Amino acid sequence: MVAIVDSGSTKSDWVILDDFKKVFLKTETIGFNPNFINRELIAPEIQKNSNLISVKNSITKVFFYGSGCGVKKNCETIQEELIKVFGKAEIIVKEDLMAAAYAAYSGKPAIVCILGTGSNSCFFDGENLKIELPSLGFLIGDEGSGSAIGKQLVRRYFMKKLPSDLHNEFQADYQLTVEDALKNMYHTPRPNAYLANFTKFVIERKDHPYFRDMVFEEMKNFFEYQVLPYEEAKDAEINFIGSIAYYYENILRSVAAELNLNVGHVVQKPIESLVDYHIKYIL
């Protein structure tokens, strides 16, 4: 059996293929971004999933694509923790951009972007991945992401910048105090996921003029910092992976049109396309 894993900072999608390359099992765990999660929690979190534990000894290969795995040391961390669970398997760990490139590939070169809890971009020609820009994380990067939008919302709430209707609704929904916010941002293992959780409030009101403008500016930042520096940006199709891209697709396309850029397709969950790519090109 083969496991294919697409892991973000919030959650991981798992698909197990049987020996005939057919889907045997689909399941989820939390996300395993080694920049945020304590490595000692990775194996125990996987072991909480009874479906994965039931087949762990039958898995001979694990393809793990994860946020935070663009650094060799982080890849090694994930590899070492996965082998504790899947002791009979060959463990292959690559960054999430590679999964996005595979999932978004439609036979022609394209810029591929991730817009989920975090954000990132690359250029994929069908064989080679070109990354010209570093992933700076949620503190000084991740433009357009769930954590960036959540950060904007929380900041504007506390600084009394939201219109009164939105301020009152946010207050009623969350009853958030400064103390609780600071505790979760500075003293929990996954602060980016904590901030990204607030995007639900924005998504449910994404047609509100204030939020529409806020998200438009955030997406403009994303294109400015993570797409336009690529020389291919003006000519290549730009494809998107991730829930934030999916929920704000109309705004994304509006920003791209203003910048004379060509957005191709937007995929909410790349795991299905990622599995298809493996079956067709890798396994």
Q: What does this entry look like structurally?
A:
By secondary structure, the protein is α/β, with parallel strands linked by helices. The protein has 14 helices and 10 strands. It has a 5-stranded mixed β-sheet, with helices on both faces. A 5-stranded mixed β-sheet has the order 8-7-6-9-10, with helices on both faces.
Q: How many strands in all? A: 10
Tally of DSSP helical segments: 14
| Biggest beta-sheet profile | 5 strands, mixed
Q: Tell me the β content.
A: 15-25%
Low-confidence spans: none
> Could you say which structural class the secondary elements and strand pairing correspond to?
alpha/beta
Mean pLDDT: 94
For the termini, the CA-CA separation is 11 Å
Radius of gyration: 19 Å
Percentage of residues in helical conformation = 40-55%
What is the H-and-E element order? EEEHHEHEHEEEHHHHHHHEHHEH
Shape: globular
Side-by-side strand order of the widest sheet: 3-2-1-4-5
Describe the secondary-structure layout.
Layout: E1 2-7, E2 11-17, E3 23-30, H1 42-47, H2 50-55, E4 61-66, H3 72-85, E5 90-95, H4 96-104, E6 110-115, E7 119-124, E8 129-130, H5 137-140, H6 146-158, H7 164-174, H8 178-186, H9 191-196, H10 199-203, H11 209-226, E9 237-241, H12 243-247, H13 249-258, E10 262-267, H14 271-282
Parallel strand pairs: 1-4, 4-5, 6-9, 9-10
Antiparallel strand pairs: 1-2, 2-3, 6-7, 7-8
Helix pairs in contact: 4-14, 11-13
Brief account:
45% of the residues lie in helices and 20% in strands. The protein contains 14 helices and ten strands. The strands form two sheets. The protein has a five-stranded mixed sheet with strand order 3-2-1-4-5, with helices on both faces.
